[in-house]
Structure formats: structure tokens, C-alpha cells
């Protein structure tokens, strides 16, 4: 039975859900792998590359500024995308940001002086921060009911790259650490089809969010999501910062404490691949509190010295899907998805900076370390 003309017009007027092109998705995975390798290698390579950088640019320069410049570039990209909001040309953003990242990385490899090297590191960071933000938002919008799983997979690929980064840094750091930046630029170029992800971001937003709920603007309506992001990021960084200190204080050897610390990050990597797949049929309002409650239970278990080696990987497993799930949820309910994701990212950065220091001071006053 055919539909009446009126129904057909209404169906035609309904906004279509954006769909991510397969080539764009594959390229995005490649981009995130490269981002993970370079981002982790910049930090891990400082010790190995110190002799080369001092010989190349002079012993008076502080090598840690490279990481600072890279992160400041990422922060600048995040803030700019948030401020631009609807004025941002989202269709053009992914290819432009990929070009910025590749140009910055190539510049790091060819820099004749220290100032140019730092400047190119900042440019590379701009590409990194912008790509991480826009591609996470595109994945959150481009897979309908499977978005949470796909955002988790995208970030799991970044984690794999982050695990490979220190290995790559150790292999080339003593010779010429700039080879890593050159390799990142070369490997980013074949991922040019990631530009198609902008088509997903350019699809006009529906008037309502998931399940017919009204979309919300960046502000008080997103406050609960932002608070969860701040607390989550603070928990993750606090565990990475203080878990070894706590374990050594409880009588563990340095080697055993390091093993427990690596177990947490392994749990994070595995959790982003496995947990969302198991909970994909459950709504975010059910899974998010469940993830956080499980992580809290695991951290309480970590207070028992002989159970910490199991508790920290379990905490990583539980916490792994939290941020990707938040990104997918915020992108689904926000009036301007990329702007909301930008504000969420900034809240996470604030949590990374503030919460670990609060935990350290509180523990110090209590005599824990």
C-alpha cells in the first residue's frame, strides 16, 4: 500500500542521519595511529634524543619545551574550534588539519634552528588537537546506534599508537629523533581520504536530540556531561601519577609497582575494544554510571596492597569507555557538536591539571606518602 502524498512529504522532510564513508573511517583509524605514535614518542623520546638535540641545536636549550609547544598547539586548536562554533567550515576542517599536521611534522624534521623546531612542534600540535576533536565528533555522529562502539575503537587505535611510540623513539632517538616526525608526515599523507569525514559534520542538525529530546546549547544543559568529563580525566591522570607511589609506600618493589602501572594502561586499551561491544544495547545513562561505579570499586580494592596488581587493570578496564561514551553522547544532544566536544575536551584538560594535585596534597596531609 502506497503512502499518501502528505506522508511522503513529511518523510522527505525528515533529516537523514549522517553516515561515515568507509574510506573516511579507515583513514581516520590510520590518522589516529600516527597521532598516537608521535604524541607518545615526543614524551618518551626526551631522554633518548637529548644528546642529539643538544648537539644539533645547542646544550643551552630545554628539551621539555618541545612537548609544551606541542600541547599548547593542541590546546589552541581546541579553543579555536570551540569559539568558532557554527562559523567553522566543518567540511573543510579534516583535510586542512591533516595538511597542517603533516606540514608541521615535516617542518620539525627539516628545521634549521631551535626556534623553528619549537614553532613547527606547535603547528604539529594544532593539527593533532584539531584532528582529535573533529574526528571524534565525526565518529560520534556518523555511525547512528553504533557510534559509541566506533568512538571507542578510534581511541583504542590511538592507544595502540601510544604504546608503539616509545618503542619507535627508543629505536631512532639516539640517531636522529627528527626521523619520527618525518615518518609521521609521510604516513599521514596516504590518509587524505579522512577529508570525507567533514561531510558527516556538515549534515544539518535535526531539531531534536536522541529519542526526540530537544538539543541543548553549550551551557548549563551540558554541565552534567562536563562535570563527568572533568572527574574522569582527573581520575585517569591521578591513577597514572600516584599509583606507583602508593604501591611503593605499601611495600611493593619499584619493579612490581611499574608492572601494576602498566596493567592499568593495558586495561584501558583492552576496555575500549571489548567493553562497549558488550554493552552496546544499553543506553548511556545506564552504562556511564555503571562504568564509574565499577572503577570506584576497583580503586577501593587497590587500597589492599596484595590486590592492587589486579585492581588497577580492572579500574582501567572499567574507565576505558567513559570518555568516548561521553563524546558520543554530547555530540548527539548538543546544538553544535564540535563546539560541545571542544568544551568537554577543555574540561578534561582542567581535570588533568587540577585533580592529581588535589589528590597528592590530600594524601600528603593524611600521611599516605
Describe this structure in words.
- With 369 residues, the chain is an all-alpha fold.
- 76% of the residues lie in helices and 0% in strands.
- The protein is built from 15 helices and no strands.
- The protein has helices at 5-13, 22-44, 46-57, 65-84, 93-110, 114-141, 147-176, 178-188, 197-202, 223-249, 254-278, 284-302, 308-319, 322-333, 337-365.
- Helix 4 packs across helix 6 and helix 7 (147-176) runs antiparallel to helix 11 (254-278).
- The protein is globular, with a radius of gyration of 22 Å.
- The protein starts with a helix and ends with a helix.
- The model is unreliable at 4-15 and 207-214 (pLDDT under 50).
Summarize the helices and strands and which ones pair or pack.
Blueprint: H1 5-13, H2 22-44, H3 46-57, H4 65-84, H5 93-110, H6 114-141, H7 147-176, H8 178-188, H9 197-202, H10 223-249, H11 254-278, H12 284-302, H13 308-319, H14 322-333, H15 337-365
Helix pairs in contact: 2-6, 2-7, 2-8, 3-7, 4-6, 4-15, 5-6, 5-8, 6-7, 6-14, 6-15, 7-11, 7-14, 10-11, 10-13, 10-14, 10-15, 11-13, 12-13, 12-14, 14-15
